[in-house]
Amino acid sequence: MRDIAIVSFVQSDCVRDAGARNEVELIMPVVRKVLDNVGLESAQNVDFTCSGSCDYLQGAAFAFVLGVDALGAVPPIKESHVEMDAAWALYEAVLKIQSGQAESALLYGFGKSSPGELPIVLSQQLDPYYLAPLWLDTVSSAALQARAMLDSGEITEREMAEVVARSRKNAKSNPHAQLKGDVSADELLNEPTYLSPLRKHDCCPVSDGACAMVIATVEQAKKWGKPYAVLKGIDHRIESAHFGARDLTKSPSTEAAAKAAGVANGPIDIAEIYAPFSHQEIILKKALGLGDDTVINPSGGVLAGNLMMASGLSRIGEVAMRIINGECKRGVAHATSGHALQQNLVAVLEGA
Amino acid sequence: MSAQAEVLQQAFTLGFTYTRTTGLVVGRFLTALRDRKIVGIKGSDGKVIVPPMEYDPVTAEALSEFVDLPDTGVVKTWAWVKHPRGKHHLDKPFAWAQIQIDGSDIPMIHMVDAGDESKMSTGMKVKVRWAEETKGFITDIACFEPA
Amino acid sequence: MSDANKEALEPITGIESPVYLDYNFTAGQATARFLTKVKEGKLVGQRCPSCRNVYIPPRGACAACGVATNEEVELPHKATVQSFTIVYIPIPGNPIKPPYVIANLVVDGANISFLHLLSECKNEDVRIGMRVEAKWKDPSEWGFAMENIQYFAPIDEPDVPAEEIGRLKDA
What we know:
The structure holds three protein chains of three kinds.
Chain A: E1 4-11, H1 23-38, E2 48-52, H2 55-58, H3 63-66, E3 79-82, H4 86-98, E4 104-112, H5 118-123, H6 138-152, H7 157-170, H8 185-189, E5 193-196, E6 198-199, E7 208-217, H9 218-224, E8 229-238, H10 252-261, E9 270-272, H11 278-287, E10 295-296, H12 311-324, E11 330-337, E12 343-351
Parallel strand pairs in A: 2-3, 2-4, 9-10, 9-11
Antiparallel strand pairs in A: 1-7, 1-8, 4-7, 5-6, 8-12, 11-12
Helix pairs in contact in A: 4-12, 7-11
Chain B: E1 9-16, E2 19-21, H1 23-34, E3 38-42, E4 48-49, E5 66-69, E6 72-81, E7 94-101, E8 108-112, E9 125-130, E10 141-146
Antiparallel strand pairs in B: 3-4, 3-5, 6-7, 6-9, 7-8, 9-10
Chain C: E1 14-16, E2 19-26, H1 29-38, E3 43-47, E4 54-55, E5 61-62, E6 67-68, E7 71-75, E8 78-87, E9 100-107, E10 114-118, E11 131-136, E12 149-154
Antiparallel strand pairs in C: 3-4, 3-7, 5-6, 8-9, 8-11, 9-10, 11-12
């Protein structure tokens, strides 16, 4: 295994509606900045480019192809795309580098969810015979999971509210966050239910925006002369598409990915967990094997702003930048995809 | 420099007019629904799965042993939809639920029309409300209702 | 059973499962700016600050250089046929009766083509390099759409050699 360096990461603000900005206009500022940070002129200066997005979010066919206009892809570049969160674009790039086909890569993810009804759009990710025709939306499936958690005694509504209160508080120092502020668990518990047992604040907001990252072999990063964090392990696993066949109160796919990525090989200072619903942070913290000495979601996490198809890569970028800035030595980042934590990716990062 | 443009918006509907082949296992389940019956399938560990899966979720073994089941079951978990969305099939508040059909081990997801959240509880018994006309589709089960 | 009919005896092997999703599309800033000008009867492209190519309709970026474009350039309404096709197949929902000509047109001063209708000539006379001009609808009908131009029509100017039509300069 070649060690891979995360050299640069940039994320846009999370906004409810990016209005008159198309995919190129969303992507270009973050790609420009992430390349500038490394001193690169364009995507021509990396060996591979991979993006993560989902055309269904905005209802524009081949928006991911139009997005390539942001890169300067003339003459043609080696480019790929995943119809997933860009954390999986990172995974593809890692494989590309590990197999010796590239020394460096540019990754980006973008989501413009505001034109559609996101939870309904995402209902069509489900099995097309049994579930998609019922229009089981993502908030509803998460609420089924939350009730199962509450019924099992694994969590309480107060613990869910405490997750939200901490997210809002941490987000105060995150300039890109959409929701932030001081609010107590008691105040949150006084709110009415939205999709019982979930309250509105238990659910992440819908956000538009983008993020970008540059990675390279450690040798290449040293040539660039930039500080970097090292990706020590990365793995992803998936669970059954049959909801009933899954124990929704646990995340065995996260557990397996965490084991393979080597989370337990050392102490974890910080963790950025992709939990779009408050109760999921508690499931994931347990599945990742994290103790109370790990700082969870110092950025506020996605409850403070959720860029569909970019938030997963952002979790990894958040941890990488905190390591590069010397805030911590070893961290774990998690990304999720599908309903009720169906698929999960875990990455372990360390200082150089 | 160009001046800031006004935001131009246009509502539109994107249609994906798919037809799908069902395969033998899903087809058998949908055929049974048309006859107002529920069938499950036996997993490699002997557990009965509803709706039937083509392959075992643990061993990936192809499954083929169908089991006739009643149209009653028990709610394993549920969520109350106070504000149904436009696409939802029920236009009044309803519950999503994981329902373990009697005689099965792996629950299915469907809607429960209980009228009020206070009528819902984990462990409650429910019964299928069949659609007025059945055609071999998951919505042949219009929803479940308290039994 | 009421719905037990002959068809019901056959096992289900397929389903119809159409999906309709509703969106509120928002044009990008560059597109919105372009359409606002089209509503005023003007064709306004954007120039790349790096390679100087002019794009119309603009998308806010030079795809070749990967940089934002924001310098606006008002272009004339004359164009050259870069490529074309004669459509014989009726398209559902399209009011135009076949056969008709759709052409890739490069407006003078631009480096990229767009599609529009070509009329006022015999279909068989249309050729690459042919000079054409926009025929605008009555201003009272103008909206935020390229349909403000009803079609392009031939003009009496010498053809442009194919190799000179709106080529992207070497990057």
